[in-house]
Write a structure and sequence with these properties.
- With about 230 residues, the chain is α/β, with parallel strands linked by helices.
- The chain has four helices and twelve strands.
- Strands 1, 4, 10, 11 and 12 form a five-stranded mixed beta sheet that branches. A five-stranded mixed beta sheet has the order 3-2-7-8-9, with no helix packed on it. It has a two-stranded antiparallel ribbon with strand order 5-6.
- The termini are far apart.
- The relative contact order is 0.22.
Length: about 230
């Protein structure tokens, strides 16, 4: 987070960044608006995440890409879960002409980071717990704009003020509203109450120079490997 603070300063109005985390994977499917990244998760509370991708003047950015991933309702990412074979809780979404996006998932949950080995010893030595507050990961990018790697957080989570990796920023905290009655959008997607909704707008700053992101580097290495 210190590196993030130093290297990814944002101008006023731009969405703040936070840690990339170790659980991103390449190959997430591109889904239509309202596509369900949590189709195998039968215990989580169904949730719709909506919003817009905008520039710093509040104008919509059409065709922006949102790479989304999160832990399952059992607190595990797909790569940690021995009962899963393949990708889960991951998807890529494009904004429409109004900059709007819609992701279907389940309510994020808090979970402990692995606390064996030196990380566990450091946490215990400093009197800290291993828990991360409930969050959803996003990398948001668009042609002509600087991408942002960030999370959104659930306002009601008990670990917001004591995140094990210090990644919470006030501007990224969201309200998840519970619905006991159907809405037109939920009905269109085949969702039945109870379900949750949250809304968050991402604001991107214009690109000032060519930058290599972690995702760029991974994709370039994959391309080089495929080329032999």
């Amino acid at each position: 987070m210190v590196v993030d603070l130093i290297s990814h300063r944002k101008p006023d109005g731009a969405t703040e960044s936070t840690v990339f985390g170790p659980f991103h994977r390449l190959g997430a499917p591109e889904l239509p608006a309202g596509g369900n990244i949590a189709h195998l998760d039968k215990t989580g509370t169904p949730t719709l995440v909506s919003g817009r991708v905008l520039d710093l003047d509040g104008q919509p950015i059409a065709g922006a890409l949102l790479d989304v991933w999160q832990a399952q309702s059992n607190g595990l990412y797909d790569s940690q879960d021995a009962n899963l074979n393949g990708l889960h809780m991951r998807g890529k979404f494009r904004t429409d002409t109004g900059g709007r996006f819609l992701v279907r998932t389940v309510r994020p949950v808090h979970y402990p980071i692995p606390s064996d080995g030196p990380v566990g010893r450091m946490l215990r030595a400093t009197g800290r717990h291993p828990w991360r507050p409930a969050h959803i990961h996003f990398v948001v990018s668009a042609d002509g704009y600087e991408p942002v790697t960030t999370h959104i957080f659930d306002r009601t989570d008990e670990y917001l003020s004591s995140d094990a990796v210090f990644a919470v920023k006030d501007s990224l905290i969201c309200d998840f509203a519970r619905h006991e009655n159907p809405t037109d959008e939920a009905a269109r997607l085949g969702m039945v109450p109870p379900f949750l909704t949250t809304d968050f707008d991402f604001h991107l700053k214009p690109a000032t120079k060519q930058r290599t992101t972690v995702l760029d580097a991974q994709q370039r290495l994959a391309a080089l490997g495929a080329a032999g």
